[in-house]
Specification:
five-stranded antiparallel beta sheet, 2% helix
Length: 407
């Protein structure tokens, strides 16, 4: 008896659309994950030969391990342990990352608890020059010494080393001349050279949303950083600042959504750049309408065109974005499908704003445990996507390859 068409569609989605390209122009194939049971909080970054994946995994002897593996033409490398600790700050929205720089070095960051309670944790950055076999003593980019939140980190190439942006909660404790603290979350930047020499700390924004991710991409003229701002009137739109002539520009809105919200939505922006082209994707619920937007810039992030709506009508958000070498952007996000059910979806958006149909990557959930799917280009022009699947007995990182039709 022939199977009903609805069953075939569901089966195709369950197997990550092994049916091949649809009118989305994308095909999706799940590939083996190097992680094991109890893994989560994945992050991906592009290397010359493929991608590098990091994740946290519950350790049988207690605590968690931060692991990495690299995907090349021959598959995944043997996973390497960066660090294992029992005092990791483990959070569905504020997760470690890994970056390979042009000299072949690997850089990793994680978050480590202090001793003063749930909101006392800080950033640690470590460096490897031998493919992750050994790692340097960790460096802490903030030196304020307050028992406050420091997280939502972005690592990016900067000079012969890296730049670091993060959200910094020191102003929740530090008043001026004995006065009351302003209790503002700030965005800060610092660099460190390949030789371990740190640069000065720079304040990028003195009042930002408390717990939305930052992101940074490197355009032709230099790094472009995006974050969710917070005005005195509780407008929490996405802002952009650029490294220009040796300084960071004042943050300006990517678009004036006008989203007034009295609390943090825990839904940060994503940015990608190639040459002078920059694209930003973000979630907003301005005027009580949840949406995922994308906007393009053709002058290195100095100005942006009008945004286009990317979602399918009921997004959770949790976006990521990549600029394809052949043109156009690939945006990923979580879309609700009823109740707490959701799907990881992707859509190609042309720079002129035209779009193809969305493509389901995997079934998921709108709950916090599903985390933030992450993407990166591999060495063949395909996009690798990693996400946390926690719908079974425990969490596990899954990985898929997204191929654009004709590539």
């Amino acid at each position: 008896m022939p199977m009903p068409r609805t069953f075939l569609v569901s089966l195709c989605a369950a197997f990550l659309c092994a049916c091949g390209p649809t009118d989305s122009g994308l095909s999706v194939e799940e590939i083996p994950s190097p992680s094991g049971p109890g893994s989560g909080e994945p992050f991906l970054s592009t290397t010359e030969d493929g991608v590098v994946l990091s994740w946290l995994q519950v350790h049988p002897d207690g605590g968690h391990g931060l692991w990495i593996a690299q995907l090349g033409d021959d598959g995944w490398s043997v996973p390497a342990l960066v660090v294992r600790r029992e005092d990791f700050f483990v959070n569905w929205a504020d997760f470690p990352s890994v970056l390979r720089t042009g000299d072949g070095s690997l850089w990793a960051h994680w978050l480590q608890r202090g001793g003063a309670g749930s909101y006392d944790y800080g950033v640690r950055v470590s460096h490897s020059v031998d493919e992750g076999r050994t790692w340097s003593e960790p460096w802490t980019p903030h030196e304020d010494g307050t028992a406050t939140e420091h997280g939502f980190v972005s690592l990016f190439p900067f000079g012969d080393g890296i730049g670091v942006t993060w959200l910094d909660g020191r102003e929740y404790q530090m008043g001026v001349d004995g006065g009351p603290p302003p209790e503002e979350m700030t965005v800060r930047f610092r660099s460190i050279t390949a030789q371990g020499v740190p640069g000065p700390e720079v304040l990028l924004d003195g009042r930002a949303c408390d717990c939305c991710q930052t992101d940074v991409a490197v355009a032709a003229a230099g790094p472009v950083a995006v974050y969710r701002d917070r005005t005195d009137d509780e407008i929490r739109d996405i802002y952009v600042t650029r490294w220009e002539d040796g300084v960071w520009t004042e943050g300006i809105p990517v678009h004036e959504d006008g989203w007034e919200i009295g609390g943090c939505p825990v839904n940060g922006p994503a940015v990608a750049a190639r040459g002078d082209t920059v694209v930003v994707a973000w979630f907003t619920a301005a005027r009580d309408t949840a949406r995922v937007n994308a906007a393009f810039s053709f002058d290195g992030g100095a100005s942006f065109g009008d945004p286009v709506r990317v979602d399918d009508g009921d997004p959770v958000g949790r976006v990521d974005v990549r600029l394809h070498p052949g043109g156009g952007a690939l945006v990923t996000w979580l879309e609700r499908t009823g109740g707490e059910s959701a799907e990881v979806r992707a859509r190609t958006v042309a720079s002129r704003g035209t779009m193809r149909s969305s493509q389901t990557i995997s079934v998921s959930a709108a709950a916090r445990g599903s985390g933030f799917p992450r993407t990166a280009f591999d060495g063949r022009g395909d996009v690798i996507v990693a996400w946390t699947d926690f719908r079974g007995d425990g969490s596990a990182v899954r990985v898929a390859r997204i191929r654009r039709e004709g590539s």
